[in-house]
């Protein structure tokens, strides 16, 4: 099925993820029921982790009110099963609630459409953890041969957001696991990535877990480690107490946009900006972001 044929279908189908929304007009009257045993989850679903407590709460609601909005499934496959395109959380909760059937909307989708809808549904609802989101972007790029800019347009994000997300996949597996578990944030992860020496990255990761460092504290320690200051010799960087808070705020905005350490030296009237990079690829990435002003802020 082509994008043109779908029209505003993708946008409409994505909205089914919100159980409080009404079905769009073009889909009303096209709802049927399928046995849960005839439905399978999508192996390309970006979201891999489902909050068990939230699922139980939804299951309780389904027991009382039923499934308010149908899930979206693909046409029957050669194995006699329908693949979920949107609504896996409702499917899991319905199964948990003991239902035998669930309301569905059956449509024919290309593999490209299924992947795009699954990704956009989750990203727009902010249901993915940082690693799942990064993996989904990478999968979309590889499966559909898309650039970062094209992916950003499809999911309604800035290109810099997609680029910074993809960088998280360069982290060691245990650091990625900590992101998934919520032991550190994407801001912590970006600060770790800004450290050039892999051994120092491990040191910084350990400090975050041990001392519960804030993102700002992590960034400061990352900068110190890049200057060769280890645990026994680390000194606090000069930072006058009367430094304008506006400068720290702007530094954070640069960090969010560029995904690397940015230091503003000077006053509100004049100064200089230092942007850290740690490889030729990193430098090319920064140039790409800065040269495309529409995606910077």
From TrEMBL:
GO terms for molecular function: DNA binding. CDD domains: SPO0J_N (cd16393). Residues 225-245 are annotated as: Disordered. GO terms for biological process: chromosome segregation; positive regulation of sporulation resulting in formation of a cellular spore. Residues 32-123 form the ParB-like N-terminal domain. It comes from the Bacteria. Belongs to the ParB family. This is ParB-like partition protein. It comes from Sediminispirochaeta smaragdinae (strain DSM 11293 / JCM 15392 / SEBR 4228) (Spirochaeta smaragdinae).
């Amino acid at each position: 099925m082509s994008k043109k044929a779908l029209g505003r279908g993708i946008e409409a189908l994505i909205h089914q993820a919100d159980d409080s929304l009404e079905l769009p007009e073009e889909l009303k009257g096209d709802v049927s029921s399928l046995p849960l045993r005839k439905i399978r989850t999508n192996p390309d679903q970006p979201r891999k982790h489902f909050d068990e407590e939230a699922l139980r709460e939804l299951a309780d609601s389904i027991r009382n009110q039923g499934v308010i909005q149908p899930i979206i499934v693909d046409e029957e496959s050669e194995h006699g099963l329908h693949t979920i395109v949107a609504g896996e959380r409702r499917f899991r909760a319905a199964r948990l609630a003991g239902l035998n059937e669930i309301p569905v909307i059956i449509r024919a989708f290309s593999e490209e459409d299924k992947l795009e809808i699954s990704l956009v549904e989750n990203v727009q609802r902010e249901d993915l953890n940082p690693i799942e989101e990064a993996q989904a972007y990478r999968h979309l790029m590889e499966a559909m041969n898309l650039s970062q800019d094209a992916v950003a347009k499809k999911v309604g994000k800035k290109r810099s957001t997609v680029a910074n997300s993809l960088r998280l996949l360069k982290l060691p597996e245990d650091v990625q696991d900590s992101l998934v578990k919520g032991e550190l944030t994407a801001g912590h992860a970006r600060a770790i990535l800004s450290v050039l020496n892999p051994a120092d990255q491990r040191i910084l990761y350990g400090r975050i877990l041990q001392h519960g460092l804030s993102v700002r504290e992590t960034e400061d320690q990352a900068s110190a480690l890049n200057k060769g200051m280890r645990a026994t010799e680390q000194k606090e960087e000069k930072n006058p107490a009367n430094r304008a808070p506006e400068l720290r705020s702007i530094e954070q905005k640069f960090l969010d946009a560029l995904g690397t350490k940015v230091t503003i030296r000077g006053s509100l009237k004049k100064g200089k900006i230092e942007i850290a990079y740690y490889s030729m690829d990193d430098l090319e990435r920064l140039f790409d972001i800065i040269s495309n002003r529409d995606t910077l802020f």
